[in-house]
Amino acid sequence: MDCHDTGSTNDLKWLQWAKRLQALAQTGLTYTKDVYDRERYEELREMSIDMMANYSKVNKEQIELAFAAEDGYATPKVDVRGVVFKDNRILLVREKADGAWSLPGGWADIGYSPAEIAVKEINEESGYEAEAVRLLAVMDKRLHHHPPEPYHVYKLFIQCRVVGGEALSGVETSDVRFFREDELPELSVERNTERQIRTMFEFLKQPDKPVILD
């Protein structure tokens, strides 16, 4: 779900409050056995949906459908990005969704380790076969100037190296290229920011740079 990047601190606060309300409601609905408490948690969830609809481009029905699939104890979602360098260039893929560029990656799937997710996403989105080398960063998405969104997301950046394959676009991507740091294209800021890409280049220049942990 896309949200306005309003730049307003007040708007961002409202969105954070709405996400927190949704998480409390979801967790409450998971564990409560009292019919009256269930009604209160349903009301809390409805309030959070109204708040998100007010500060996003997404209509209320779409938000309700997204949250209807969420149950159990509320936890952050995990986005895994594969970081591949070749000849001092970084691998980026062009997203069909917005026409901008990002590190190959996506939501972590059940049944895969973080390293396996990075390798799988690189292959599906770029055509390259890769192997995971090391974890570079674990970032809380809300702290890194991405557009606001309904979910609380942790981003894992995992360095990988190419071991085979060839450049091929995928179902969600339309182009595959390696870019120097001084020639970065328009980036899909929902997925990665310029600062994050430049931080990945710091790991290339400083192999002993410690893992970044928010």
UniProtKB/TrEMBL annotation:
What protein name applies here? NUDIX hydrolase
Please list the GO terms describing molecular function: hydrolase activity
Q: Which InterPro entries match?
A: NUDIX_hydrolase-like_dom_sf, NUDIX_hydrolase_dom, UDP-X_N
Q: Which domain of life is it from?
A: Bacteria
- What are its cofactors? Mg(2+)
Residue ranges of every copy of the Nudix hydrolase domain listed in the record: 75-201
- The organism named in the record is Paenibacillus profundus
What are the entry keywords? Hydrolase
Q: Which PROSITE patterns match?
A: NUDIX
The keyword ATP-binding appears for this protein = no
Record's keyword annotation contains Aminoacyl-tRNA synthetase: no
